[in-house]
């Protein structure tokens, strides 16, 4: 089963409503429920696909740990329930947490990330999707990770500038 990660901006009103009504998570993700928040209709989203675990490792140096806010892809925030269709969970982060995240991503140098990119180590740590030493012929996992890291940085900066929170879900 593929484990894909999506990030989506949400207003503070939406974040609070989701915490109150976790049963509406699926409708919110499918864009059928915005809790009457017209501003939220202009949400931003970023699909980082299967790169989430590799990015977590490059940003924190660990598979499932690390210091906030850079561990946000795998933990932190507030749980707003399960993704009904898969085995994933969804977590929300406040606007202040997104600002801190954007700042931390901006301060993370590419050379730090490049030093941590070690296919044998990623394989050993069982970093998803697990083909680090023998990637599919049409894929350069290192370039894919760095390209998504740049996207992630831009995305977090834009969401922070809007003063919105973030919903992160893997499923």
Structure notes:
With 171 residues, this protein is of the alpha+beta class. The chain has one domain: YfbM-like super family (Hypothetical protein yfbM fold, 3-Layer(aba) Sandwich), CATH 3.40.1760.10. It has a 5-stranded antiparallel sheet with strand order 2-1-5-4-3. The termini are close together. The mean pLDDT is 93.
Search tags:
Hypothetical protein yfbM fold, alpha+beta, 171 residues, single chain
Task: Give the arrangement of secondary structure elements.
Layout: E1 5-10, H1 12-20, H2 25-29, E2 45-49, H3 52-60, E3 78-82, E4 89-93, H4 95-107, H5 110-116, H6 119-124, H7 141-162, E5 165-170
Antiparallel strand pairs: 1-2, 1-5, 3-4, 4-5
Span from first to last CA?
9 Å
The major β-sheet equals:
5 strands, antiparallel
Computed Rg: 16 Å
Please tally the β strands and state the result: 5
Overview in brief:
The protein has 171 residues and is an alpha+beta fold. It is built from seven helices and five strands; from the N terminus they run E-H-H-E-H-E-E-H-H-H-H-E.
